[in-house]
């Protein structure tokens, strides 16, 4: 029982420390951004590289990273947002490859 109480206390402490993120960074992450990739040929390495570049640029714009020395809150925002966007890119490419493979299998 003591172990469970300790574990719950540790989880609570972790949640409290995670919520100590600078308010400015949290506000910056709420900003929306949009971009399109319908014009890219995701069958080519150039198209895939451009997709990654567009998501990286979207993360920079969302977080206000416009200089070589951004504020720490902007750096934190960019770090977390760009990581999430890398997952989006991977999902998009995986879906594209899956649809392409299914299309070839149907022929």
Task: Explain what this protein looks like in three dimensions.
The chain is mainly alpha-helical and 107 residues long. It has one domain (22-106). It contains four helices and no strands. The chain has helices spanning 2-18, 23-29, 45-63, 72-106. α2 (23-29) runs parallel beside α4 and α3 (45-63) packs antiparallel against α4. The radius of gyration is 20 Å and the shape is elongated. The termini are far apart. Residues 1-30 have low confidence and may be disordered.
Query: Count the helices. How many?
Result: 4
Taken as a percent bin, the fraction of beta residues is under 5%
Separation of termini? 61 Å
Write the H/E string, N to C. Answer: HHHH
Major sheet size, sense and barrel closure: none
SSE-based structural type? mainly alpha
Our count of domains comes out at: 1
Mean pLDDT figure: 75
Rounded radius of gyration (Å): 20 Å
Q: Spans of 5+ residues with little confidence (pLDDT < 50)?
A: 1-30
Outline, from the CA principal axes? elongated
Helix coverage percent of residues?
over 70%
Number of strands: 0
Secondary-structure map with pairings?
Layout: H1 2-18, H2 23-29, H3 45-63, H4 72-106
Helix pairs in contact: 2-4, 3-4
Task: Give a summary of the structure in a few sentences.
73% of the residues lie in helices and 0% in strands. The chain contains four helices and no strands. The longest helix has 35 residues.
């Amino acid at each position: 029982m003591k172990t469970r109480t300790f574990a719950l206390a540790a989880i609570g402490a972790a949640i409290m420390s995670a919520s100590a993120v600078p308010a400015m960074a949290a506000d910056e992450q709420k900003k929306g951004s949009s971009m399109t990739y319908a014009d890219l040929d995701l069958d080519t390495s150039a198209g895939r590289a451009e997709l990654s570049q567009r998501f990286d640029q979207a993360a920079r714009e969302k977080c206000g990273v416009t200089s070589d020395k951004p504020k720490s809150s902007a750096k934190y925002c960019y770090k977390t947002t760009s990581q999430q966007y890398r997952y989006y890119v991977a999902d998009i490419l995986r879906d594209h490859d899956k649809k392409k493979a299914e299309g070839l299998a149907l022929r």
